[in-house]
């Protein structure tokens, strides 16, 4: 996999269970990510800088009081949480103009195909079955790189003197256009990005997790 | 016992836990997350698991002991226990929880009581074994040795 040597990716992890937060935090750290953990969807939104209007909870506004200095490259959230579920959080993020480009990944200990497809249709990039493994997290890098690449392309677009304002580029298209310029990305990553833009295929990939593969396949520890 | 013998004992002991199905490969995943920057990760997480589980089993005993059992209270507890035992690789506890949940769904109080006993049994077993494992590790470290990695020949 290509090495991201510049700034680290920063992931926001959401889970109501302390135990699960500790696990996902360690997994992400081990995958060279910076991690912030919160125990609820509403705290996640607060952290992002989205304030829920007290009177009308359906209205989300970017809070003028919370100055969001931290750039979040990915949100990973548990599905089953009291109050705001992971699915609710996903919806709120995707409905917000400011944050809808942040990739969201859902985790659940239950393999419910209807749940998985609902999340993917709502815009989740991946659906991980718990317990999440280190190998699962390698799937995150392409999604996080997408936002970094997009930001960089937006930056260079602004630097060019252009009288015509560019129309908003579809996320998937932007990735495919930019990719050939970056030789660090290996073909494996290309496949992951292309296939993950086809959500139905992603769902199938998710369902056939290593539950069906022999458990002890990837043990490589030795004395 | 010298250091090499202690290390061999630890390896054999760990292997036996896998062979008996008390632990599964998820425990190895935990060990992979431990390194110089987080040298106590496994014992920290397992301790959290013990604390959580003690509390849950207590709550379950109370809930199932009620005149009228509220399965809406019972099921989430079992779900949580299933999740955390699965995350640390406590295979038998997890499997017992799966059976437990099925009977919760059927609202079968008798069977749930039996399931709770089964879960407790498996839990105390893995708790006991892991505490022994950590003691063996501590002895090795105290003697200035390194914890050997587990070699599995499946």
From TrEMBL, chain A:
Keyword annotations: Nucleus, Phosphoprotein, Transcription, Transcription regulation, Two-component regulatory system
Composition bias type Basic and acidic residues, residue spans: 150-168, 201-216
Location, primary (coarse class): nucleus
Gene3D superfamilies, per database record: 3.40.50.2300
Residues with the 4-aspartylphosphate modification: 78
Recorded superkingdom: Eukaryota
Location(s) in or outside the cell: Nucleus
Pfam family, one: Response_reg
InterPro entries named in the record: ARR-like (IPR045279), CheY-like_superfamily (IPR011006), Sig_transdc_resp-reg_receiver (IPR001789)
PANTHER family: TWO-COMPONENT RESPONSE REGULATOR, TWO-COMPONENT RESPONSE REGULATOR ARR8
Source organism of the structure: Camelina sativa (False flax)
Chain ranges of the Response regulatory domain: 10-145
Region of interest (Disordered), residue spans: 147-171, 196-223
Gene coding for it: LOC104793040
Protein name, as recorded: Two-component response regulator ARR8-like
Species classification: Eukaryota, Viridiplantae, Streptophyta, Embryophyta, Tracheophyta
Automatic annotation (TrEMBL), chain B:
Primary residence: cytoplasm
Superkingdom, taxonomy of origin: Eukaryota
Domain HPt: 38-143
Keywords: Cytokinin signaling pathway, Phosphoprotein, Two-component regulatory system
Any single Pfam family the record assigns to this protein: Hpt
Modified residues (Phosphohistidine): 79
Cellular location(s): Cytoplasm, Cytosol; Nucleus
Free-text comment about domains: Histidine-containing phosphotransfer domain (HPt) contains an active histidine that mediates the phosphotransfer.
Function, as annotated: Functions as a two-component phosphorelay mediators between cytokinin sensor histidine kinases and response regulators (B-type ARRs). Plays an important role in propagating cytokinin signal transduction.
Name of the protein: Histidine-containing phosphotransfer protein
Organism: Camelina sativa
